[in-house]
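Protocol step 4 of 5: obtain the predicted structure for the target chain.
Materials: sequence only (see below). No template structures provided, no constraints applied. The aim of this step is simply to have a reference model before the mutagenesis design in step 5. Sequence pasted as it appears in the construct record:
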Amino acid sequence: SETTHQPVDLPFESFDDRVRVSKRTHVATMNAASADHSTLQSTGTAGFLKFEDAARKKQTRIICTIGPACWSVEMLGVLLDNGMNIARLNFSHGDHATHAGTITRLKEALAKRPGVHCAVMLDTKGPEIRTGFFAPPYADKKIELTAGATLVLTTDYDHKSDGTKLACTYAKLPTSVHPGNQILVADGSLVLKVKEVLNATEVACVVMNDCAIGERKNMNLPGVKVDLPVLQAKDTRDLVEFACPQNVDYVAASFVQTADDVKTIRKTLDGAGGQHIQIISKIENQEGLDNFAEICDEVDAVMIARGDLGMEIPPERVFRAQKMMIETCNKAGTPVIVATQMLESMCSNPRPTRAECSDVANAVLDGCDAVMLSGETAGGKFPKEAVSIMARTCVEAEEELDFDAAYGKVHAGVRADGKVVDVVESTVAAATQAAVDAGAKAVIVLARTGATAQLFAKYKCPIPVIVVTSFDHVARQAVALLPGCQAVHTPDLTNYGYNNAAGDDENKMVAAGAKHAAEIGVITKADDIVCAVHAYKVGASKNVAMRFFYAGPAL
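Step 4 output (structure tokens):
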């Protein structure tokens, strides 16, 4: 309907033409029911403004594994300033006290950076298979194995090896493998070929290469379905006694093979009060690939864990699996992470190889949402440099992305089967295209769960998305895995969204998002266009608002 609101005075140079005067009228209309936005406190951007240039510019998210090389308050701050969005805690190493100390120090580093959010990921040890211990005089040393020799694997884990028989943790090994199967030990440095299943506890193998191995090395069974539960006893304790009490944001579950695995983890977390914790399925074997579509539908995010995956399937096929999973996740709107050995040489060198930079860039070009550093930050000599070059590489790759092509591909994929999408997704799809066409500088999303913001990531929105939420975990998760998102945590503004009919805080939250965008330099002029999208309730029906306004009062 027509509005009679008078133009507002903006703290900028006067505009003479009628178009800009008209824009001022629209600003007044948008703010008619809200408070005086000029009195809004700063949304807290001091930490973000101190980021390195690439950390501010990049859309792709960066996950850093935390270890002795970077777990001091100072170094955690350095990682944040250079682009870290998720701190990964690897529960294959360390105890609960050690990891709790890391979270405490991370919070200290964040306290020195107002407005900066960083999520915490617990990466489970998972159903690993490992070799056993050695007998004297080999204990705590290495045993030399010679190509052509016979090595018996036994499921009796009490057995101490002398180099002729080696224990392993997988009790079902004799019923899982067959003559001709390969077994890889110590990340593939030792290759065994199954010769014969001797009995219910022993398998005879041929050593295929000379190798010196130590105790407790990992073991992979390529092409074999490993019959182990996704959560071992240790994993369940880690989730119930650490992840939930510590309010971590993500659990990355190792060796997920089916959608039922995801449901098992969800039930465990929910039963311990971890309903807000999102689940990341790590795809690490052929079974996970075979069931990937169902896993993708069930899980919150996916990690392409190329280390073990390259042991479980032929390494020359990993690239194809990576592209398939990224494409499937993009179509579903499921965040996808590419991980393992991305900048591996930087564990000891200050510069990556050109191939490593190309690996990172190609993952971004393929459509991944996040890339991950492992040993590079946890134990490497150059953690700062690793994060910095990864951020700069992401920025360079993002400049090559074609929004029209990316948007068109996702939209066509969604509609390919003739399915009608729900009103929220269709609104987000339309808002993304409209915001680009209108030259909007920012999109503001009011979030209770982050689902709407995730849809903007699905449709490859190239415009900064400012997520405004009263929930701290939603703020962290929005910044963690949704490319291009910034978050504003407004704990005192809670009356908004589908569950609140009145929605008294909605205009204040939109204004807070616009103010934040102005403070970080996303909007700079009074006539910069901003798009706001949020759900609200009228009576018993759910509605979705998409509105455009001019930024003047926020500046």
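Step 4 remarks: The radius of gyration is 26 Å. Confidence is low (pLDDT under 50) at residues 1-40.
Proceed to step 5.
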